[in-house]
Give the backbone structure.
Amino acid sequence: MKYTPPGKPGSIVSVEGHYENFIGGKWLPPASGKYRVNLSPATAQPICDVPLSTPEDIEHALDAAHAAAPAWGEASAAHRAELLNAAADAIEAHREELAVAESWENGKPVRETLAADIPLAADHFRYFAAAARARESTTTEIDSQTIAYHFHEPLGVVGQIIPFNFPLLMAAWKLAPALAAGNASVLKPASPTPWSILKLAEIIGDILPPGVLNIVNGPGGEIGKALATSPRIAKVAFTGETVTGRLIMQYAAQNIIPVTLELGGKSPNIFFADVMADDDEFLDKAVEGLVLYAFNKGEVCTCPSRALIQESIYDEFIARCLQRIAAIRQGDPLDSETMIGPQVSAQQLEKVSSYVDIGRAEGAEVLTGGHPAHMEGQFADGYFYQPTVLRGHNKMRVFQEEIFGPVLAVTTFADEAEALSIANDTLYGLGAGVWSRDGSRAFRMGKAIKAGRVWINCYHQYPAGAAFGGYKVSGIGRETHQMMLDHYSQTKNLLVSYDPKAMGFF
Amino acid sequence: MTQRVTATPAARQAIGALSARGGPVMFVLSGGCCGGTAPMCFRYGEFITGPGDLLLAEIGQCPFYVDARLYHAWGEPALTLDVEPGFPEGFSLAAGDGLHFVVRGQPAQCQAGRPQQ
């Protein structure tokens, strides 16, 4: 099925000429009165205009959030859960509309947004609604007459800065735990994807009390910085690259507030020889597991961008994978048959091209792809890149730098020890994959790989309830799990004596 | 010191314009995730560098840093700083209206030029 692009006659997604910031439950124009054009990466044509906000707009959003936070924080967990569940219902009821909007803005194929991004976003709100209700305070009996009570309190107003690669799901990952724990949020979307999140606000904005959710669009250097440096936030959460991550920690140090960060990755995906012990469903799954580097056109922090294949099966296994890669359908992100769409922006496309050139220059062999993909008709100007596989060794730049595109770096290993050594030879530690029919080996490898998430005999699954976050320079904190509630909570301890006697010091 | 980053005339011009408008600037090369390997341009002193940061070059008065571990992992390439159309990454200053700073792996690629979308 092919969906009509947003704004075109017959589309299920309506588009206004321009959009405002969502602040205090209202649509407010940016203080500067300035807007910029937001393009679709599939056509390089405008979708709409979005605000070019300034620090003044961040202050307005913080005013609204501070006005809303006390009542929201004092509301019962049951009440907050009811509203988050209602938000989830609304997301689900508008699944197709949101999927089409997000696909058109980001370029990711609609088969992914329909099946993953949007349903997972809805489920995230439900998970944290449930987790917040089920969460218990603790008491410790220090002695028979002294009790320590521990209560969870919201932090208050939090700042959240999200990336372009999953505009709605990353918003849900950040908002659901923050709001469930009783905080109000000021959220800054990524510059390439400012609009689909506003479509989400159209759908869930009225469900939440005004000021609990605020969205401000504009340049990171101005409003991202204004938000992260503000003494009016009690916590900052960020997903993105390492230098901004460090800068955010530095700002947080100045205000003495906590941070959670999800930064980069260069995730190994390891295939042991026994995956080819049989020609069965499992082998088919493993082949797909390698090809998942092209999921969301490789614009995923956990993209399995380094494939490590055991020498003894390399030729046969890579041949099957290349066959599967050759069958990837590239094109219109709104066609449900499409498997890979355009990169999110011209500059991402440029960056991917440049890395493949670097790979060639350092001696990597191009097994497939290696060039921008040329499309016909309305997609001729879109930012498409061919699914690409480079063969080389782990010391090459294309094995060490995160490319954030559909580019796989492949190498081989002799045995388990070498596989582990190559897997861990990276500064990052976000994700990894292990494929083997030998459960003991997979368990050993999974425990030994220095990454926060190791998928065993699967990849790219992001269910709420499984903790996600990085080791090493890949970040701090664990999302998609109820432990994130703690990252958005303050602990209040009441230490109570029921003993009528004085201590006896004075 | 050895200059391991070469700036194109366009990059020098952008640095000059930024400095004239708001004071001196600095660069820190980022790695990983959505911004990718991108030169972040900040007001001088905005980013606190530490012993793990390597000073790769001074472009005029403007220092250019990178995380030493990242640079080593990348094989210590020579870099070229240039300007292209696009959004500045993260909290970076823009290189001008609708422009951002970029690095290229090798000066040769810069001379060859690349088509813009």
User: Anything to note?
Assistant: The longest strand of chain A covers residues 146-154. Chain A has a mean pLDDT of 97. DSSP finds 15 helices and 22 strands in chain A. The CA atoms of residues 308 and 411 of chain A lie 5 Å apart.
